[in-house]
Hints:
By secondary structure, the chain is α/β, with parallel strands linked by helices.
Amino acid sequence: MTTEPVPGAAPAAATADASGDVLRAEHITKRFGAVTALHDVNLHLGQGEVLGLLGDNGAGKSTLIKIMCGFQPPTSGRIILEGQEITLKSVDQARSLGIDTVYQDLALINELTVYHNMFLNRERTRWSLLSNRSMRRTAQEQLDRIGVNIPSVDAEVAKLSGGQRQAIAVARAVTSSAKVLLLDEPLAAMGAKEGAMILELIKDLKAQGQVSIIMIMHNYGQALEICDRINLLQHGEITFDKLAKDTSVQELNDIVIEEYRRALAEQQRQKSA
Length: 273
């Protein structure tokens, strides 16, 4: 069951628990046969917070996001939303609870207009016919409210830039009453101008304080600019948790370089054994 957005209205803010967290993942472990992708991961997300989830390819970031959005279950551990333990069985269920995800491929339909994509799978109808006028008006109001500028809601998505497409995907999640937004590499393969557009959108959402956001990112500089707090995931474990203002690109680079050095030393040891 999805919640119909109210024209021009902001989504209701999530309710934080006693610790101030909207979402918590506790002791999450995920095994695929003999491979352990995640090991005893503990993550928390405050109300209105933007959390940067960093780590190399294969560190387990996408696996963790898939668990928190209901795409796959953990082997063990639990997820707590607004102080209540939840068992996610599907992406649709997670979305109905207010957890929405925007992946790199965006899940937009190029041949449809902006406003039809905004209402994809939750179209408004009247007498079995699409209420295009109502959806068009609401889409424009919602995009204006969160500061997304596009030529027209009647434009086909295929004709928009990469930054505009990403903004539409984020806006669709926000306007469908998302309380927690999971963004998988929202700035991937974008130029500076388009990346700046998405960063401004995230800043605006943060200022409104209605949505709590987890962003998978690779660019440390961008992460420190936009995120309130940074988590570093290495080999399926969160090894670093600091406020963005208390760390630096140099500190994060040093941690990763040290990891590479240990891995190289281990390879050399095995070769000489």
